[in-house]
């Protein structure tokens, strides 16, 4: 699972234009849900990235590249300018593999932006996937986070997975989660939202973040590959 989804994205955003990425999402997440029933995803609905409609509800998942390098953040310019082109390119290749991709509901709900939008706009999240997963963990425990209102607006989607363990297992996120599922292994030391900056403050902090993020992507790619071999490839034998 090392395909760089920019390869077939043309000049566009891979989250919307890569046919390979869309197919990966469709194959990986069309499966049995913790709540019961299948989350079958189709690509046949007009002007829709992925679509699910059943007795469980109607959902419009879209793709999100979830592990940012912060290369376009103006507040990070003084750090990014100190990185080598090789460092940047290495990160960009890794964060455009399926291990760095997720789906979230893409339809607009009353009073909130989408989860993808909220992740990016909220300064206490700043697109961080580890922070997002921590917010989702807290949602299942009815604990507050900077994304509480947004996640709650998509409560029907998160109910599909019953609890945080169900969500993490479904999306193959175990390598970011403690074995007890009681905590998230964040990419930098973390005190709490609003206390810990989601943006690395020094080159050293960025490199520490990078190393942990790339390690997670590598492990998740392996986990995805193993799941595909056991569930998709085996079904074709």
Automatic annotation (TrEMBL):
<dbReference type="InterPro" id="IPR054263">
    <property type="entry name" value="DUF6994"/>
</dbReference>
<dbReference type="Pfam" id="PF22507">
    <property type="entry name" value="DUF6994"/>
</dbReference>
<protein>
    <submittedName>
        <fullName>DUF6994 family protein</fullName>
    </submittedName>
</protein>
């Amino acid at each position: 699972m090392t395909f760089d989804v920019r390869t077939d994205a043309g000049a566009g955003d891979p989250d919307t234009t890569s046919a390979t990425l869309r197919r990966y999402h469709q194959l990986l997440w069309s499966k049995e849900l913790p709540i019961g029933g299948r989350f079958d995803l189709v690509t046949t609905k007009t002007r829709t990235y992925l679509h699910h409609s059943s007795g469980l509800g109607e959902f419009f998942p879209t793709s999100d590249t979830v592990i940012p390098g912060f290369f376009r953040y103006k507040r990070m310019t003084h750090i990014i300018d100190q990185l080598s082109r090789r460092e940047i390119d290495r990160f960009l290749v890794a964060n455009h593999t399926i291990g760095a991709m997720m789906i979230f509901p893409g339809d607009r709900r009353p009073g909130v932006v989408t989860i993808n939008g909220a992740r990016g706009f909220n300064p206490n999240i700043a697109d961080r996937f580890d922070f997002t997963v921590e917010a989702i963990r807290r949602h299942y425990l009815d604990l507050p986070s900077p994304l509480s209102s947004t996640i709650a607006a998509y409560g029907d989607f998160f109910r599909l997975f019953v609890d945080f363990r169900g969500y993490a297992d479904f999306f193959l996120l175990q390598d970011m989660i403690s074995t007890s599922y009681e905590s998230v292994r964040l990419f930098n030391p973390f005190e709490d939202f609003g206390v810990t900056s989601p943006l690395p403050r020094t080159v050293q902090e960025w490199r520490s973040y990078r190393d942990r993020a790339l390690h997670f992507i590598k492990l998740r790619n392996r986990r995805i590959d193993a799941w595909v071999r056991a569930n998709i490839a085996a079904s074709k034998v």
